């Protein structure tokens, strides 16, 4: 018989998951209902409405995918991309690269507009690619690149793409709830996220929203979506008045998201954005004071995810391990070209507080004494 689980708590300050508030843990423990129970259907409707507010949209088709953020990415692409479609993708980190890989597997002709890791993808280069390929069906970018800590500007891209037949697809996995996303204002057609970042909910759901323009594209596909499970037309029948069975939703995770969105509303969305901005700026200033070098391009740094190389060229791995083992604090290491070179420090959801910053800095000072 398996031994009873014994788990030592950690302060989660990596790129995700983020700390989970006691209220959300309590929501997870509520009685499980059937996925067609009227009580649960009401909760699901309230979750969809809460997500509309968080995304800044009135899109009817706004709901949580049963899966992590990568399932949201796959759902976003699979529903609007068909074999032979041209897709332009901005790539300046791991998740832009993942979009490319998924789109290629779906048979798309991908035009990758690449930029150096740590930098934004210049909007003018994406729009140049769009002018060079006016038949482009989808243009995709990562709003908050989790692998580098870069915030991609969207306004210029949205304004230009909205004047074309191209759909704008945006990865907001690390930005939703921590930065303004503003789907309708910018003109985003498909936007997806994850629960485990700034919403402060455990991993397992991927909030997603489709514009009316995207739904029209989906309705006129030449062939059905290649993924039965992620086909938004099939899911729509469950979310709509018909309530047709599609799959068994992760009931208790939906409770957790409902509670997380309730907490967002109690905070006020703009106040929550300000909180993430303030504590992120405080951490970045304190790290620079201690000799860290910030990795992301100045002026485009995410407040909720700080990427930085360590003082004096120190190896990041041993110190990250010591931070976990001696102080119970998890931070992330680098990926791809940044592997072994940087820390990625997340201040997201209930972890975005000045008290958390103080605890982290105290631990850093113990490991790296200031001269």
CATH class categorisation of the largest domain: Alpha Beta
Low-confidence stretches: none
CATH topology of the largest domain: Aspartate Aminotransferase, domain 2
Number of domains: 2
The overall average pLDDT, rounded, is 96
Helix content: 40-55%
The CATH H-level superfamily of the largest domain is Type I PLP-dependent aspartate aminotransferase-like (Major domain)
Distance between the termini: 53 Å
Please identify the structural class as seen in this structure: alpha/beta
Q: What's the CATH architecture name of the largest domain?
A: 3-Layer(aba) Sandwich
Q: List the strand order in the largest sheet.
A: 2-10-9-8-5-3-4
Quick structural overview:
This protein has 371 residues and is α/β, with parallel strands linked by helices. It has helices spanning 22-28, 38-55, 69-80, 94-105, 123-132, 155-161, 183-186, 212-219, 232-239, 251-267, 269-289, 316-327, 354-367, and strands at 11-12, 61-66, 86-91, 109-114, 138-142, 144-145, 150-151, 167-171, 190-192, 205-210, 293-294, 305-309, 329-330, 332-333, 343-346. The longest helix is centred in the C-terminal third of the chain and has 21 residues, at 269-289.
